[in-house]
Write a structure and sequence with these properties.
With 61 residues, the protein is mainly alpha-helical. 70% of the residues lie in helices and 0% in strands.
Length: 61
């Protein structure tokens, strides 16, 4: 088992770092969603479904 870890430490490290980044992004998205922030960051003015998004946000407040 130790031999496997020694031979593949680079792959294990990169895999763990990738998983950590994905988890942090998901947590940030959930926190922003709970605070009512937009997912795209540019507002709903140019969005083709912006009217539907605004209705949902107004009903939550």
């Amino acid at each position: 088992m130790l031999q496997f870890i020694v031979e593949n430490w680079g792959t294990i490290f990169i895999g763990a770092a990738t998983v950590a980044v994905v988890v942090l992004v998901i947590l940030k998205m959930r926190r922003d969603r709970k605070q009512g922030k937009s997912g795209c960051g540019c507002g709903c003015a140019g969005c083709p479904v912006g009217e539907n998004c605004r209705k949902e946000q107004k009903s939550k407040r």
